[in-house]
Design goal:
By secondary structure, the protein is of the alpha/beta class. It is built from 15 helices and nine strands.
Length: 335
């Protein structure tokens, strides 16, 4: 039997996914404030898609007559490269892009790409919920944007076409990365070659040897079957994959204090449920990888420290962009 929070999410998702964008618009009354929420993944089966769908279902139920949320998944409205500009023009009211898309407005969100800054997902959440995390969320207000929260995917693991036990094992290998200067520096610190590739290209690139390895969450590695074309995974937990829930300050300030408070309350609840769901999803994916014949290697404390020491200089490399005070605050949650 599913836990209550997962059952609630499943019911909300199935109800909302049944609606096409046109049906959703038809269900928004003319007197309601309409929020168009754009993202780039499926409406269900992905931590971000599940969270967006659950958020819309909760708002449309609890704030019926006042606020209506329409979710546009799979880049049907905008992709991550264009959604923030569209938001500033008032064409969309909420989005959940990759945090790397915030670089045009501030480089402080690079903090979430720093390797081994956080011990685990819980320490990430503690930082995001802290005063320092709240200050970071407001750091783009002068650009017309506001980070309302974060929806998680999980901690990242490494894989390659050979065992990765020591940092030296990565030397000379080609690793697929997202478009991020921090992630590029992370693999350069290992004397490896980072290759920027779209997510949809990763499996083929691993299969054909265009790249030798990659980093991702267990849930992404399992659902995209990356483990089938790799020697094995190393449970490094070296980074976090998370998404920002963003709105424009103009739209947010146009809402009443009651509407803002109710939306924040619902968002906080959905985020909490999403964190628990993401944890369960990644644990399940890890077990499925192993049961499917994949190899998951764990590191001893000494082995992990070797990886930490190899990548630790990346913090200093980007401290001016991020802020040494912010890095120090974030690292304190992993002590």
């Amino acid at each position: 039997m599913l836990p209550k929070y997962l059952t609630a999410i499943a019911v909300a998702i199935s109800a909302a996914v049944a609606l096409s964008p046109d049906t959703a618009r038809a269900n928004c009354d003319s007197g309601e404030t309409t929020i168009k929420l754009s993202h780039v993944v499926a409406a269900s089966g992905h931590p971000k898609g599940d969270a967006a769908t659950a958020f819309a279902a909760a708002v449309n139920s609890e704030l019926n007559g006042r606020i209506c949320v329409e979710v546009y998944p799979n880049s049907t409205l905008y992709d991550d490269d264009k959604v923030l500009e569209a938001m500033l023009l008032g064409d969309v009211q909420m989005a959940a892009p990759s945090l790397s898309k915030m670089e045009k407005y501030t480089k402080r969100f690079r903090i979430f790409d720093l390797p081994f800054l956080f011990r685990d997902a819980e320490s990430v959440y503690e930082f995001q919920d802290s005063a320092a995390g709240a200050e970071l969320a407001r750091s783009v207000e002068d650009k017309g944007l506001l980070m309302l929260g974060y929806w998680p995917n999980g901690m990242k693991q490494m894989s390659a076409n050979k065992p990765l036990v020591s940092p030296e094992d990565a030397s000379g290998l080609k690793f697929r990365i997202q478009s991020s200067e921090v992630l590029q520096a992370q693999f350069e610190a290992l004397d490896a070659s980072p290759q920027k590739l779209a997510f949809k290209e990763v499996y083929g690139a691993l299969q054909t040897g265009v790249v030798d390895g990659q980093e991702n969450t267990y849930s992404n590695i399992y659902t995209k079957k990356f483990f089938e074309v790799q020697d094995g995974l190393t449970e490094s937990n070296h980074g976090i994959l998370t998404y920002g829930v963003v709105t424009s300050t103009e739209f947010w300030n146009s809402l009443s204090a009651q509407d803002r408070g109710d939306l924040e309350r619902i968002l906080a609840r959905v985020t909490s449920e999403s964190r628990a769901s993401a944890k369960a999803s990644n644990l399940s994916a890890k077990e499925n990888i192993i049961s499917s014949g994949g190899t998951v290697r764990t590191l001893t404390a000494a082995q992990r420290n070797a990886w930490v020491n190899a990548m630790r200089p990346v913090w200093d490399q980007f401290s001016d962009d991020i802020g040494s005070d912010l890095i120090e605050s974030a690292s304190s949650f992993s002590n």
